[in-house]
């Protein structure tokens, strides 16, 4: 959802954007073909065809390496790189959305972090605001820096509100900002389920609440 908001907002600014999802798992089958719901949504936001967004689609809702092995297939690192370069060749801004977190295995000996290094990509971490997210976020930033990657910053995603954890949810963003040593790029407000496919609404929220210029390197 945050990816779609960013893509649509930048497209409205007149920027030639494209989405890249190296691998999507947990895909549904339609007319005998796998369809990735993330790819469909991001393609709508960027103006691409859904089939052009991902290099690999798998049915099992698992880490890409696991999903591929379950189908007797192999994810090729070179194919992931070539897929990105093909998309980037005709766009001014490419948003690459991972499948899971930074250390999720994509292929044998290759995690999302390795692909980030291969492609030389700047990184924006989207943090779901819930109990435990501070630890996850700070560990992600540490793993990035240990690999020589300086993150652009983080976006707090207000995924829900649970009264039981009200204090944690209200303070997550500020505490991460105090400890992360990276830029706070804003907070995506909670979006009701019936508006999550409303691209213009998402773009409005991105313009109002996220530092899109920082993501553009300005």
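Sequence proposed for the structure above (218 residues):
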């Amino acid at each position: 959802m945050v990816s779609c908001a960013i893509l649509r907002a930048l497209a409205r600014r007149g920027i030639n954007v494209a989405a890249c999802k190296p691998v999507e798992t947990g895909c549904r089958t339609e007319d005998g073909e796998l369809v990735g719901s993330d790819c469909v949504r991001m393609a709508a936001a960027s103006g691409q065809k859904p089939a052009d967004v991902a290099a690999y689609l798998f049915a099992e809702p698992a880490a890409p390496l696991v999903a591929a092995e379950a189908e007797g297939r192999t994810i090729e690192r070179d194919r992931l790189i070539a897929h990105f370069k093909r998309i980037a060749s005709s766009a001014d801004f490419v948003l690459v959305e991972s499948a899971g977190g930074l250390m999720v295995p994509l292929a044998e000996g290759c995690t999302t972090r390795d692909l980030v290094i291969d492609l030389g990509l700047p990184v924006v971490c989207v943090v779901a605001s819930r109990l435990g997210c501070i630890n996850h976020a700070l560990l992600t930033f540490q793993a990035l820096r240990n690999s020589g990657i300086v993150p652009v910053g983080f976006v707090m995603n207000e995924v829900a509100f649970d009264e039981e954890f009200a204090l944690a949810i209200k303070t997550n963003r500020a505490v991460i900002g105090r400890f992360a040593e990276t830029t706070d790029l804003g907070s995506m407000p909670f979006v009701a389920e019936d508006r999550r496919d409303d691209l213009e609404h998402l773009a409005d929220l991105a313009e109002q609440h996220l530092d899109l210029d920082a993501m553009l390197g300005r």
